[in-house]
Amino acid sequence: MLRILGKTSSINVRKVLWACAELDLPFQQEDWGSGFRDLNTDAFKTLNPNAMVPVLVDADFVLWESNSILRYLANRYGDGGLYPSQAEARARVDQWLDWQASDLNRAWSYAFMSLVRGSAEHRDPALVQASLEGWTRFMTVLDGRLMETGAYVAGDHFSLADIAIGLSVHRWFGTPFEHPRLDAVREYYARLVQRPGLSRYSAGVP
C-alpha cells in the first residue's frame, strides 16, 4: 500500500490525497510536520533531505515534490484521463502545474500566512497588500483562461492541473479579504467542490 507522509493541513499533501481519491488508490497517510512527527530527523531526511512534506513511499520507491508525485501516480496507476499521453495535451497540463507552483503559490503565500495562519513573521501590512495584489493578478489570469475553456484549466476535461490549482482556489475563497468578482473562477470552484477528493480533504481547512 502507498504511504503518504505529511499532515493534512498542508496544501501540498492534500494534492496527493486528492489524486489518490481520483485514481481510487488505497493509501496510508502519516502525520509529519509542525505539531506532529519531526521532519528534522535523520530518519525523515533519508526520505527527503529537504525536510519537507509530502513524501510518497511506494514499496521501495521514494519520491518528494508534490507535483512530481501527482505525475508519477497518474503515469503509474492512471489511464491517461488525468495526465494525457499526447504531447500537446500533456504539455498544457504541465504548463498549468508549473504555473501553480512557480507563480500562483508564491503570490498568495505571504497574505495567507498573515490572514489565515496568523504568522508572527508575516505581519507587514504593505507586504500583505502586495501579496493580495499579486494573488489577484494571477487569479485574473486564471479567470481569463477558464472563460476560454468553459470547463477546466487544461481544456474540456479535469486533469492533474485542476488538483493543484483547485486547492489554491479553495484557499482564495477561504482567505478573509474583499475578493474581486471573478465569475469564471467561482463557477469553476463550484464544479470542483462536487468532486469527493476536494470536499473530503479540504473540509474545514483553507
What structural class is derived from the secondary structure elements? alpha+beta
Largest sheet: spatial strand order: 2-1-3-4
- Unreliable segments of 5+ consecutive residues: none
Number of domains: 2
Most strands sheet: 4 strands, mixed
Mean pLDDT: 96
Give the N-to-C terminal Cα separation: 28 Å
Q: What is the global morphology?
A: globular
Instruction: Tell me how many strands there are.
Output: 4
How many DSSP helices?
8
Q: Assess the beta-strand content as a share of residues.
A: 5-15%
* Radius of gyration (Å): 17 Å
Looking at the structure, the CATH topology of the largest domain is Glutathione S-transferase Yfyf (Class Pi), Chain A, domain 2
EC number: 2.5.1.18
InterPro entries: Glutathione-S-Trfase_C-like (IPR010987), Glutathione-S-Trfase_C_sf (IPR036282), Glutathione_S-Trfase (IPR040079), Glutathione_S-Trfase_N (IPR004045), Thioredoxin-like_sf (IPR036249)
Pfam families: GST_C_2 (PF13410), GST_N_2 (PF13409)
Keywords: Transferase
